[in-house]
Specification:
Blueprint (H helix, E strand, L loop, with lengths): L6 E5 L1 E2 L10 E6 L4 H13 L3 E12 L2 E11 L45 E2 L1 E4 L6 E5 L3 H12 L5 E4 L2 H9 L3 E4 L3 E2 L25 E4 L13 E6 L21 H18 E11 L2 E3 L2 E3 L1 H12 L2 E9 L16 E8 L11 E3 L21 H11 L5 E4 L6 H8 L3 E6 L2 H12 L6
Parallel strand pairs: 1-3, 1-9, 4-6, 9-10, 12-21, 13-14, 13-20, 17-19, 20-21
Antiparallel strand pairs: 2-11, 3-5, 4-5, 7-8, 14-18, 15-16, 17-18
This protein binds S-adenosylmethionine.
Length: 439
């Protein structure tokens, strides 16, 4: 029997790479998952040849609501077994149990029919009286978390290494061979923001509010210097969607260029924002050849480099997402909401794990094409309540279909938006502002 580990599970520590076989899975448990504590270490591990396969967010209870721990899932090669069927999640929401789909031509079901595909948000979903609607989210039991890691990575008699006695005990109880090892402890990195950002300050007459501008948000907009009370936006993701015009953000030849383009926009945003006010950025990591690119972490470093104060990252959970569905991974069902400010004082935001109603469908009755990446209105509402009051000015530098505009109007906030694709805004913002119900 092979004496090398099939699974290495470490709490707040990283593995000694010499311990790894080609088919070993490495799972790291990072309580509270504060990015400055571990992301730089992950980048180092990637540089040493490890593949960062996924970041998994495990719900836990905290003072103010739901928070999360992070599980980092890494491998040395793609040559490992991943027993995904064992961790499929039961769902009463039948139409979202992907296994219920029609058989393919070869007679095979498209997915396993024992439940919903597992995602990288591990949470307890509580339903009422068998009703299909998830009404409440709750923390996941630590034992259930251990169970999932063990089952997805190993079978009976496999060798498991860990620095965590509770996990070793659990593994032993479930018929695995165990060995105690010490990982190399993670140390917090004191990332010092570079405040010297060379921003120019110009004041002129402010532009008109409650309207969108066909404007490249990389370029400064006159008159907005320290006029804006709150910024909420979701930029194009790298290589995910073609918004249909040249030189667009997200379609750059390389990832570094993409980061640099967004940096230009965030510098302008720093200009526009009033002192002590907040900026919420919706972003996600992206997968390149099975190895995760940490866009979330890169954004935090860029924002801090400009002078923004980083407060927290909330997770927005999208239960029905099927992004990144592969046989050797769990799918990506979350996005990040990065909260930064220009010297703001507030540090507690309630839940760190949020869920908003999903938007479905792509065509309006009158055949107007909906924007492919709209915010849920509830998400905008949540942050407008948290960070703004009536008559405040809200900016979205990537307005898209104008969700921020629509909700701002409804909540009596002023708004301003930038967008390059005129079609989205003319099709939709006009409709929205006439208060037509398009959903
Ligand atoms: C992810 S979408 C925003 C969706 C929006 N939150 C909504 O609810 O509809 C990003 C948008 O940014 C626009 N965009 C891309 N590059 C831009 C640029 N340089 N300046 C302004 N808008 C840009 C794209 O056309 C796209 O509509």
């Amino acid at each position: 029997m092979n004496n090398m580990a099939k699974l290495i599970f470490l709490k707040s520590a990283r593995p000694n790479l010499a311990n790894l076989d080609d088919d070993t899975q490495v799972w790291l448990w990072i309580p509270d998952g504060k990015p400055h504590f571990f992301h730089e270490h992950l980048s180092n591990l990637q540089q040493q040849g490890m593949m960062l396969r996924n970041l998994i967010y495990v719900a836990k209870r905290a003072n103010k609501g739901l928070s999360y721990d992070v599980l980092v899932f890494m491998t040395k090669t793609m040559d490992y077994s991943f027993f995904k069927d064992k961790i499929r999640v039961k769902s009463r929401w039948k139409k979202h149990e992907f296994g219920k789909g029609k058989p393919r031509k070869n007679g095979k079901k498209p997915y396993n029919d024992k439940g919903k595909d597992p995602s990288n948000v591990w949470i307890k979903e509580i339903t009422k009286n068998g009703s299909p609607h998830v009404i409440k989210l709750d923390a996941l039991d630590v034992k259930e978390t251990f169970r999932r890691i063990l089952d997805v990575a190993t079978v009976k008699n496999d060798m498991v290494f860990s620095n965590n006695d509770d996990f070793l005990q659990f593994a032993k109880l479930h018929g695995r061979q165990t060995r105690r090892i010490n990982g190399i402890p993670f140390t917090a990195i004191n990332y010092r923001p570079n405040i010297d950002n060379g921003l120019k300050r110009e004041k002129s007459s402010p532009p008109l509010y409650n309207r969108y501008y066909i404007h490249d948000s990389r370029l400064p907009k006159d008159g907005l210097y320290e006029q804006v009370d709150f910024i909420l936006t979701s930029p194009p993701y790298y290589r995910q969607r073609d918004y249909g015009y040249d030189d667009q953000i997200g379609q750059e030849a390389n990832y570094e260029e993409y980061l640099e383009n967004l940096r230009k926009v965030w510098i302008n945003c720093y200009h526009y924002l009033k002192e002590e006010h907040y900026f919420v950025l919706n972003i996600n990591n992206f997968m390149k050849k099975g190895n995760l690119r940490l866009t979330h972490w890169n954004m935090i470093k860029i924002l801090e480099g400009i002078g923004f104060k980083y407060h927290d990252s909330l997770i927005w959970y999208q239960p029905n997402s099927r992004r990144g569905l592969t046989p050797k991974n769990v799918c990506d069902a979350k996005e990040y909401l990065i909260i930064v400010s220009k010297g703001g004082k507030k540090d507690e935001f309630g839940d760190r794990l949020l869920r908003f109603k999903q938007l479905r469908g792509s065509l309006l009755p009158n055949e107007v094409i909906l924007h492919p990446a709209r915010f849920p209105e509830e998400l905008v509402e949540y942050f407008l309540k948290l960070f703004t009051k009536e008559n405040d000015l809200v900016l979205d530098p990537f307005l898209g279909s104008g969700t921020v505009a629509r909700v701002s109007e409804r909540m009596n906030r002023k708004w301003i938006g930038f967008e390059l694709n005129e079609q989205y805004v003319t099709n939709l913002t006009q409709l929205l502002l006439q208060n037509q119900d398009i959903l």
